[in-house]
Design brief:
By secondary structure, the chain is α/β, with parallel strands linked by helices. The protein has 14 helices and 12 strands. It has 2 domains: 241 residues, Aspartate Aminotransferase, domain 2; 132 residues, Alpha-Beta Complex (Aspartate Aminotransferase, domain 1). The strands form 2 sheets. Strands 1-7-6-5-4-2-3 form a 7-stranded mixed β-sheet, with helices on both faces. The protein has a 5-stranded mixed β-sheet with strand order 8-9-12-11-10, covered by helices on one side. Bound molecules: ligand P1T.
Length: 380
């Protein structure tokens, strides 16, 4: 089956009991057993739930993986994946990642004896040089949050394989419609399903998908043992979102492309970061590993923070809010919002300046978005 068909049908056969065309929401915590000690297919909803199972099958199909697992948030998926490691293990992580992921690594998991080195993964040499004897995992995002840098998944996967480390790719920004890390050599693809997969800014969820059955078994064990599972209603909402993922992404893509071109021409804009622009520095990698470019972009404003604040509060169709990947357009200020948990010095070194603005371009009529921006820039 091709992507759009899988998105509607994988894991979502009509309900055998009733013929219901959509997967029922199994709002139950526990299941009647016929005899003690002999477990039926379902026992307890932390371990398995039919609505969650449907979502997990769908996620596996979308990423061409063997095992898909759903979690209560993107960070819950990340935490559980990191629990594949042991005290003393070393992780090489990309230096431009979601602020919350950095906070989890640096302020939580480091206290449990995991070691982290941050490198710019656009340079495979730097990743290779950071490998230690105890390196067990390489963690990258691509495109990155918020600078839209692109990492060559295949090149990094070669380094991971050579050094017996797992490669994990946070595929949230691209979604499985635009990029499939497992096909490019990654071991695990992670998502915040809060974003494009859910698609309507109405839930918090996460996912981890792998082609490696043994890794999948261990992750399933951890999913139950750690317990960061989503409720059935949230699973159902993600499943419903997934059905329209392909059509939404096409529109996100075309709207973001037009907005990136508008911003490039706007005199108050210093620099636009969008993988769909011909002058994106990793254009060749983009072309190799992404089907299209998505709805996320960021840009540097000329002037100071005052101008940023003015613009962000003048927009009417774009909503000032964290998060991304929903049908509505959002705009935010990484330095004070999504990436505020990264120390300022470090943020500056990475290029997340106080004048950086990030947009999640929605699927509204692009003319309304462009008019909103024209109005916003007027008088800056
Ligand atoms: O919010 P949660 O569902 O826990 O997902 C965390 C997460 C993981 N990975 C990436 C690439 C993300 O962007 C996020 C969450 N990001 C935002 C809330 C944001 O506005 O960037």
């Amino acid at each position: 089956m091709r992507f759009s068909t899988k998105a509607i049908h994988a894991g979502q056969d009509p309900d055998p009991a009733t013929g219901s065309v959509t997967v029922p929401v199994y709002l139950t915590s526990t299941y009647m057993q016929l005899r003690p000690g002999r477990e039926g297919k379902y026992v307890y909803s932390r371990t398995a739930n039919p609505t969650r199972n449907a979502l997990e099958e769908s996620l596996a199909a979308l990423e061409d993986g063997k095992v898909g697992l759903a979690f209560s948030s993107g960070l819950a998926a990340t935490t559980t994946v990191l629990m594949l490691l042991r005290k003393g293990d070393h992780v090489i992580a990309g230096d431009d990642i979601y602020g919350g992921t950095y906070r989890l690594f640096d302020q939580v998991l480091r206290n449990y004896g995991l070691q982290f080195t941050y490198v710019d993964p656009r340079s495979p040499d730097k990743v290779e040089k950071a490998v230690r004897k105890n390196t067990r995992m390489i963690w990258i995002e691509t495109p990155t949050n918020p600078l839209m840098r692109v990492v060559d998944i295949r090149a990094i996967s070669k380094i991971a394989t050579k050094n017996h480390a797992m490669l994990v790719v946070d595929n949230t920004f691209a979604s499985p419609y635009l990029q499939n890390p497992l096909k490019l050599g990654a071991d695990i693809s992670v998502h915040s399903t809060t974003k494009y997969l859910g698609g309507h800014s109405d839930l918090i969820g996460g996912a981890a998908i792998t082609t490696d059955v043994n890794v999948g078994k261990r992750l399933k064990f951890l999913q139950n043992a750690v317990g960061a599972v989503p409720g059935p209603l949230d699973c159902w909402l993600v499943l419903r979102g997934i059905k329209t993922l392909a059509v939404r992404m096409d529109r996100h893509n075309s709207n973001a492309k037009q907005i990136s071109e508008f911003l490039q021409k706007e005199p108050k804009v210093e620099q636009v970061y969008y993988p769909g622009l011909p002058d994106h520095p990793q254009r060749d990698v983009v072309k190799r590993q992404m089907r299209a470019y998505g709805g996320m972009l960021s840009f540097e404003l000329k002037g100071g923070f005052g101008d940023c604040e003015k613009l962000l509060t003048k927009l009417r169709v774009f909503t000032l809010a964290e998060s991304l990947g929903g049908v509505e357009s959002l705009v935010e200020h990484p330095a004070s919002m999504t990436h505020a948990s990264i120390p300022r010095q470090r943020r500056m070194e990475q290029g997340i300046k106080d004048t950086l603005i990030r947009m999640s371009v929605g699927i509204e009529d692009v003319e309304d978005l462009l008019e909103d921006l024209q109005r916003g820039f007027k008088g800056l």
